[in-house]
Design brief:
This is Helix-turn-helix transcriptional regulator. About 65% of the residues lie in helices and about 0% in strands. By secondary structure, it is mainly alpha-helical. It has one domain: lambda repressor-like DNA-binding domains (434 Repressor (Amino-terminal Domain)), CATH 1.10.260.40.
């Protein structure tokens, strides 16, 4: 786990930080959820990528906000982690 991952994981225990983290702009919410999932399972980008059937480079670009994420990718992530995809229009 990288130092940044450790820091975020630790900071998410702080309710004020968690509230602000969760309030990120909607376009970053999916990226944030993917990063939180990766941190929760203590996975490197490479391990996460292997689990969902992509490359580490793609995960890096996603986490840096440089890739548009499609529903098909989210469905692969959900399946890999026993989750479901839920889309909300607010």
């Amino acid at each position: 786990m990288s130092e940044l991952q450790r820091l975020i994981k630790e900071q998410l225990k702080n309710e004020e930080f968690k509230r602000e983290w969760d309030r990120l702009e909607p376009r970053y919410q999916v990226i944030t959820q993917l990063l939180k999932l990766r941190i929760k399972y203590d996975l490197t980008q490479k391990q996460f990528a292997e689990k969902v059937g992509t490359t580490q480079a793609v995960i890096s670009r996603i986490e840096n906000g440089n890739v548009n994420i499609g529903i098909d990718f989210l469905e692969r992530v959900a399946k890999a982690f026993g989750k479901k995809v839920e889309v909300k229009l607010i």
